[in-house]
Design a protein that fits this description.
This protein has 392 residues and is α/β, with parallel strands linked by helices. It is 34% helix and 25% strand. It folds into two domains: 4-188 and 305-390, 3-Layer(aba) Sandwich (Aminopeptidase), CATH 3.40.630.10; 191-301, 2-Layer Sandwich (Alpha-Beta Plaits). The chain has ten helices and 16 strands. Strand 3, helix 3 and strand 4 (131-138) form a beta-alpha-beta unit.
């Protein structure tokens, strides 16, 4: 029987605070974009090797996976942190600001990486678990279409480093530092992009009867698309269909040949996501057909919905409550942003949490954003305790 105080506590990480802060600020000053995380990966891998981990480099690009088995336990858990930065010019004015023009850690992935490194150091030093921990340092979370999570999965993540469940977290501007937010089921949205090209028949503005006007077709589509969410989606579900761009024509006296619409489509349920695609295709195809216009639809599926499994989320909620106090753990609202951790959750049980980055924190992807260093010990202690509790 293991006593509660045998598991990692916040106070165990106080002695590491200044070292973790140094690591985080080093990473912050040297941001690397998706697919370019060479130095970050090397920095991470060297630290993990020095602590005695079995380290695999180059997993799905610049991904690093560190494995440590202690005792005879058969269970295996994975924890993931993302490593990449964004093409943004930093405006924080802080003394550890980005040294690379036009690139910055504006999403806090420097903090995510540092917290997992903190847990790694602690777990290797204390070795108070029985089983296997897999620390997944993922590249290219911000990549969009083919991201780091997909690349690591394609490179054999699940086969080469078998695990039973996977956990991850993202910092959360708007919630107080040191608070944790969990949610079972859908947490973050799927995000799809659609390009619709309408081909009509161009001609003189004074002879519309000799043309097929793609602008009229496009405008009809824009209006009709407003009915997809309101008339086809269950009102207890949430979805967004936004026409973010409409391009056609150059002159008042010319009916153009083509018109293009760009759509952003978001949802929190895989079935709703499929229904949205079906309805958008049918509606726009039938409108084009009705006008005698041609249509091409490029429906690009982005990141899927982040769906947290119930059991693993409940476990994370309990561990979080033990660590920071139940009053600092709350249920997260649905987040309309997307996250490629969803690809891991399509295959494995697990949970994605949010860690408050301060009520006055600038929003993610802002040039003024900065990760709250106060949280470094919280995240590191969370991953250490969760590992110890999972691998008892
Ligand atoms: Ni992010």
């Amino acid at each position: 029987m293991t006593l509660d105080n045998d598991f990692a506590r916040l106070s165990d990480f106080e002695p590491m605070r200044s070292e973790l802060t140094d690591i985080r600020r080093h990473l912050h000053a040297h941001p690397e974009l998706s697919f370019e995380e060479t130095e970050t990966a090397r920095f991470v891998a060297e630290k993990l090797e020095s602590w005695g981990y079995e380290v695999a480099r180059g997993v799905g690009g610049h991904g690093v996976v560190a494995r440590l088995t202690v005792g005879a336990g058969k269970k295996s858990v994975a924890i993931r942190a993302d490593m990449d930065a964004l093409p943004i010019t930093e405006q924080t004015g802080c003394d550890y600001a980005s040294t690379v023009p036009g690139k910055m850690h504006a999403c806090g992935h420097d903090g995510h990486t540092t917290m997992l490194l903190g847990a790694a150091e602690y777990l290797a030093r204390t070795r108070r678990f029985s089983g296997t921990v897999n620390l997944v340092f993922q590249p290219a979370e911000e990549a969009g279409a083919f991201s780091g999570a997909q690349a690591m999965i394609r490179d054999g993540l699940f086969e080469r480093f078998p695990f039973d469940a996977i956990y991850g977290l993202h910092n959360h501007p708007g919630a107080p530092e040191g608070t944790l937010l969990t949610r079972s089921g859908p947490l973050m949205a799927s995000s799809d992009t659609v390009e619709i090209t309408i081909t009509g028949k161009g001609g003189h503005a004074s002879r519309p009867h000799l043309t097929i006007d793609p602008i009229v077709v496009a405008c009809t589509m824009v209006v009709s698309l407003q009915s997809v969410v309101s008339r086809s989606i269950d009102p207890t579900q949430t979805a967004v269909v936004t026409v973010g761009a409409i391009h056609a024509g150059k002159a008042a006296n010319v009916i153009p040949e083509t018109a293009t619409l760009l759509l952003s489509v978001r949802s929190f349920d895989p079935q709703v996501r499929q229904l949205l695609e079906t309805r958008i295709r049918k509606l726009t195809e039938s409108i084009a057909d009705g006008y005698g216009a041609g249509i091409r639809i490029d429906y690009e599926r982005g990141y899927p919905v982040v769906v947290n499994s119930v059991k693993e989320t409940e476990f994370a909620r309990i561990v979080a409550g033990e660590l920071v106090g139940a009053d600092k753990v709350s249920t997260c609202h649905l987040i309309p942003g997307s996250e490629d951790f969803s690809y891991f959750l399509e295959h494995k049980p697990g949970s994605f949490l949010r860690l408050g980055n301060g009520v006055n924190s600038p929003i993610l992807h802002s040039a003024k954003y900065d990760f709250a260093d106060e949280n470094l010990t919280v995240g590191a202690a969370l991953w250490a305790r969760l590992t110890e509790r999972y691998l008892v």
